[in-house]
Amino acid sequence: MAKPPSDREADLDRAPKWQPRYPGSGRLDGKVAIVTGGDSGIGRAVCALFAREGADIALVYHSNKDDAADTVAIVEAEGRRAIAIKADVGKHDAGERIVERTLDKLGRLDIVVNNAGEQHPAADIRDISAEQLQRTFATNIFGMFYLVQAALPHLGKGAAIVNCTSVTMYQGSQGLLDYSATKGAITAFTRSLSENLVGKGIRVNAVAPGPIWTPLNPRGGAPAKKVESFGEGTPMKRPGEPNEVAPAFLFLACDDSSYMSGQVLHPNGGTIVNG
């Protein structure tokens, strides 16, 4: 599973599996969802599955225009509308621009999926620069605050917010100190925001994937040898696929989980964690 020197999903030596694995059942009919990091990986699989279930999608991407265009085509092939919004979610004004564009083009907002993230392996904490630390926190957690702040006036009773945390929040990660710290913040944010919004009828939950085969891994600078054995440390002895994670996002976004808020789901290959 050696990694190529590319950040395009199509250029991975083994393409991630994003395709929905079952027919849709209308669980998101008439809904509009924002999905950050929707151009590739887990985000692409979420966009595809949400579209199959009847949602129109505003997918947010940072720089990979080709991957974003591919995901738009995937959504449209499901018979749904899609727009791609280029934005750096870690910038304070990005949330407002994303929401404004979504409302202008798609007319409403029902679901926010905070999935965008970045990671930068470092074996020694002293190798983490102030710039890297601030950048990782800006993308991974500050961007969630900015987008929710902008979206909240447009979310009504029955709306859902789903955040992407990580198994590293529960296990720790010796080589991803800043990344795993942001994931701990995301879990705390999820639980606290749930308490804050539950009275408004807005549910807030999270998904904590384990090792999933996406462009984030080679893009994040992991050594080739580590990428080759990626996921083998799980009880299932393999990495997960994006389309094995997307159903957890769907469950939390639709009425199937109407009695759940402040919770975290764990598609992680069988690793036992607390909470």
UniProtKB/TrEMBL annotation:
SUPFAM superfamilies: NAD(P)-binding Rossmann-fold domains. Pfam families: adh_short_C2. Residues 31-216 form the Ketoreductase domain. Residues 1-24 are annotated as: Disordered. Keywords: Oxidoreductase. Residues 1-16 have a biased composition (Basic and acidic residues). One of its GO terms (molecular function) is oxidoreductase activity, acting on CH-OH group of donors. InterPro entries: KR_dom, NAD(P)-bd_dom_sf, Sc_DH/Rdtase_CS, SDR_fam. Belongs to the short-chain dehydrogenases/reductases (SDR) family. This is NAD(P)-dependent oxidoreductase.
